[in-house]
């Protein structure tokens, strides 16, 4: 295990009706609030109304509405302007990862002289940020408890991450009932994202990380067992609660601290999203089993055997377990009725070469990944994603 400093400073209010604490939480930071939300789901499921009734008397609320899935840097610029115009003191983000990521960039942008897109080149230019409070409505990204975000620039076809410890939410309200209204498609995509976060950190060559790997396996099993329940019974509180808490722990740096490698599937997926604006979790579900097949070799076999045994409870020879584990992963995603080939999300072969080169350019996938991947490897994984997998 590598040396690390671990800190997860977000104060989490988990459970039913924890929103009652919202006025007290915000009051610690100020009375002028920028309320950030997406395309309107919070108006349909009643959260917006609850917030208004809790805050209306005491707080001055300015709204940044319409944050897009795969949030655009233009929306961040709009938010920054609102903060300056109204002297905003605290940001309240209500939604999924896109809304929270956008709010993070606004929080940093409020005190930054340049353009917020700069954060994707170097997050350390953020020297000061507005405090951020989140109300999570979709179990997926872990943004509610971490220091990162992802922005999209449609003009340049780029989707890039940014991070800075100043952007970690001060407090996050995690009420599983707020995810009851998440449609099956987004529920599945969100869980595929959680699983991918776990796998990206689990398939790593740092030695002596048993504690991290066992935790990752437990979290993967939690998602695999609870997702089908949440899909069959969208208002099952325990299933939604398990998914929600798994989302936070999959990506709040706990299971990453002490590991040295970099991610593989996310850099590839971010190019798909940047070029075709697809749903992040669906892109990951498509790529992950193809990536597994591509990187399985004599050297990586033990990692897949461990995964097959501990996550999928498989038995047999090492080769059988490894191959079966990849098949199980694919079939699990397939069972969710989400697209599992690129053409199903509107992606053909035209831009695969270009996107493969960009994936290598925008990340360290070619040098530090679990199995370093060059542009031709990424292209092969994209190409394999054009057709259903055969086992
Ligand atoms: O916009 P609204 O109307 O709110 O609808 C959203 C959106 O259409 C809807 N939704 C959210 N909560 C709902 C709901 N619909 C009904 N009921 C609810 N309770 O779901 C749709 C997707 O929302 P979005 O926020 O885009 O999803 P997600 O949480 O998966 O976030 C995806 C974004 O996060 C980035 C992704 O790249 C993508 O841009 N990521 C952020 C990370 C981070 N900050 O650490 C890490 C991830 O790997 C990821 O890259
Ligand atoms: Zn992700």
What does this structure look like?
The chain is of the alpha/beta class and 391 residues long. The chain has 2 domains: 11-178, Rossmann fold (3-Layer(aba) Sandwich); 182-384, Up-down Bundle (Dehydroquinate synthase-like, alpha domain), CATH 1.20.1090.10. It has 15 helices and 8 strands. It has helices spanning 22-27, 41-44, 47-55, 73-86, 97-109, 184-202, 210-232, 237-250, 265-276, 280-295, 301-312, 318-334, 352-361, 365-368, 375-384, and strands spanning 11-14, 32-37, 60-64, 90-95, 132-136, 148-153, 158-163, 171-174. Strands 1-8-5-4-2-3 form a 6-stranded parallel sheet. It has a two-stranded antiparallel ribbon with strand order 6-7. Helix 5 links the parallel strand 4 (90-95) and strand 5 (132-136). Helix 7 crosses helix 11. The longest helix has 23 residues, at 210-232. The structure holds 5,6-dihydroxy-NADP and zinc ion. 5,6-dihydroxy-NADP (NZQ) is lined by residues 38-41, 45, 69-70, 95-99, 101, 137-138, 140-143, 146, 148-150, 178-179, 181-182, 186, 190, 193, 251, 266, 280-281.
CATH superfamily of the largest domain: Dehydroquinate synthase-like - alpha domain
Instruction: Specify the number of helices.
Output: 15
Terminal CA distance reads 35 Å
Class based on secondary structure composition and strand pairing: alpha/beta
CATH architecture of the largest domain: Up-down Bundle
**Total domain count:** 2
Under CATH at level 1, the class of the largest domain stands as Mainly Alpha
Describe the global form: globular
Helical content stands at 40-55%
Strand order of the largest sheet: 1-8-5-4-2-3
Average of pLDDT: 97
Order of helices and strands: EHEHHEHEHEEEEHHHHHHHHHH
For the sheet with most strands, the description reads:
6 strands, parallel
- Strand content of the residues, in percent? 5-15%
* Low confidence ranges: none
Tally the beta strands.
8
């Amino acid at each position: 295990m590598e040396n690390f400093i671990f800190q997860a400073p977000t104060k989490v209010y988990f459970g039913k009706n924890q929103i009652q604490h919202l006025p007290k939480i915000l009051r610690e930071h100020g009375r002028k609030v920028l309320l950030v939300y997406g395309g309107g789901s919070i108006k349909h499921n009643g959260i917006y109304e609850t917030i208004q009734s809790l805050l209306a008397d005491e707080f001055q609320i300015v709204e940044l509405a319409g944050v897009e899935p795969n949030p655009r840097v233009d929306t961040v610029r709009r938010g920054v302007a609102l903060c300056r115009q109204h002297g905003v003191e605290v940001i309240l983000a209500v939604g999924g990862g896109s809304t929270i990521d956008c709010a993070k960039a606004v929080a940093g942008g409020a005190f930054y002289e340049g353009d917020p897109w700069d954060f994707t080149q170097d997050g350390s230019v953020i020297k000061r940020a507005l405090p951020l409070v989140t109300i999570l409505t979709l179990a997926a990204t872990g943004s509610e408890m971490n220091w990162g975000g992802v922005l999209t620039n449609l003009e340049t076809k780029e989707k890039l991450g940014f991070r800075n410890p100043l952007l970690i939410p001060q407090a996050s309200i995690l009420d599983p009932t707020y995810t009851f209204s998440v449609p099956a498609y987004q529920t599945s995509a969100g869980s595929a994202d959680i699983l991918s976060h776990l796998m990206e950190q689990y398939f790593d060559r740092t030695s002596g990380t048993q504690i991290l790997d066992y935790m990752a396996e437990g979290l993967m099993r939690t998602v695999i067992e609870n997702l089908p329940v949440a899909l069959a019974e969208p208002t099952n509180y325990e299933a939604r609660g398990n998914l929600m808490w798994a989302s936070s722990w999959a990506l709040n740096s706990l299971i990453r601290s002490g590991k040295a490698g970099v991610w593989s599937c996310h850099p590839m997926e971010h190019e798909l999203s940047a070029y075709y604006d697809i749903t992040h979790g669906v892109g990951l579900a498509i790529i992950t089993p193809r990536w597994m097949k591509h990187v399985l070799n004599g050297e990586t076999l033990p990692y897949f055997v461990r995964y097959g045994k501990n996550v999928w409870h498989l038995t047999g020879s090492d080769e059988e377990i490894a191959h079966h584990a990849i098949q199980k992963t694919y079939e699990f995603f397939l069972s969710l009725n989400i697209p599992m080939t690129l053409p199903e999300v509107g992606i053909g072969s035209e831009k695969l070469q270009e996107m493969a080169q960009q994936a290598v350019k925008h990340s360290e996938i070619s040098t530090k990944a679990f199995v370093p991947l060059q542009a031709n490897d990424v292209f092969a994984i994209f190409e394999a994603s054009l057709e259903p997998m055969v086992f």
